[in-house]
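Fill-in record for TolC family protein.
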Amino acid sequence: MQQRQQPWPKPIKVLSVYRCQFSEYSLKTDNRQLKTENSFNSPNMKSISVLALALLTSSLAFAQQQPNDEVLNGLIRQSIQYYPQLKQQQQALSLSESRTQMAEAARKPSVSGDASYQYIWPLQRVTFEIPGLGSNAIQFAPRNNYNVGVSVSQTVYDWGKDAANIDKARTESLLSQQNVDLATHQLAYQVAQVYFSIVYLQKAITVQRAQESLVGETAKVIENRIKSGDEIDYNLVATNVRYKNVRTRIVDLQTQLDRQFILLSSLVGKDVRSTINAEAGFAWSSLVTPQDSSNVDNNWDLRLAKTRELVAEKDIQIAKAAKLPTFSFNGSTGFRNGFQPEIKEFRFNGGVGFRLSAPIYAGGRHQIQEDIARKNLQLSQYGTETASVQIHTQLEQAQSELRSTTEKLRLSETQLQEAQYGLQLANVRFQNGVITQLEIQSAQTALEEAEFQRIQYQYQQALARLELNRLIGTKIW
């Protein structure tokens, strides 16, 4: 049975920030080098400067990512060995192979052993008078009849009936094998998709926890500045609201991460929480960039639809052959009584013969069956055309999504650099007392958004590549 691929979930849009620490930074503008040191006299101002500068190299946080090949390939292999639905498809394949063997057995002779007993009454006999000898009787069969023997039957020629049935059974066996391959294909890609979702959510949680720490430190700085009369309560309230929003996002992301871990564990048959670490990335060597991405001949949905057409064609051949005669051989041998003149004596006997059987009239059932088979073939052909259109549409969408996310990822790098540059400027202005704490927080937020957009585009790019490889039938297990 064909398993339909579930649509990929949309990435979760979350604002994020990484945290790292610097004691100094460099800023280039108008071909001049501006170097600023964190040398504030006030401890509060120094803390604020460190927190602001913590965002400058946030892009390095996930620069070193562990390859996915070993972990992800291992998870896929485990899921293929464990998943019960795949075992169900494999059992269906075994059943289909047995049906093929049954169809092939029709060409072999059928031998059976028989033993029977029959008691007859009244006796079949004729009584007549013979002059000088008196009354006599001839008995045609004994009262107790015994028969033990072996019979054999073999089809000599059936005008293609057995061949049509065997071809259909073999094609159905091929269909079952393709169902197994399709289920394996979909399971492997589902595991990969859930894996990338987990990687994405882990990175998002790491980002939000870093932001939580940053906002918490900022709140402490504002509290100290309020005590010294350099800050107002409104800024502290706004920072606390921002802190609670971050906490809420962490809870939501953690819930989604738990669900993905539960789903992946159900696919592989064991707890995988300790398998995927935070350093995992979106790169995977099993995903390829095809030279000709318009070739969908290896798409399993399309291959399955074409095989269904072949099964429907075999049904037409069987319907046509049902109108043809059958020529067979029959033979038997054994021991029985009832032979004249000693009807009670057991004797060895045997016989051979041929039989020709041909349908003459069946109320039009053969024609109706052939018409049904032809309509079923048309239905399968329309199904193949529908699958082809859908696959090409999905392929174009995947290609468009891949191009879009690749371009967005490239632009996000520029946006990230600009956000870092903007935060550097804001920090300089804040040191000089030109802007407020909330304004520097706005610069931090801009960098947070740029950082998270890059992670989100990496995730979307991985899903687009995964979908593209699924559609062209790339084997990743």
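KEY FINDING: The domain at 40-471 is CATH 1.20.1600.10 (Outer membrane efflux proteins (OEP)).
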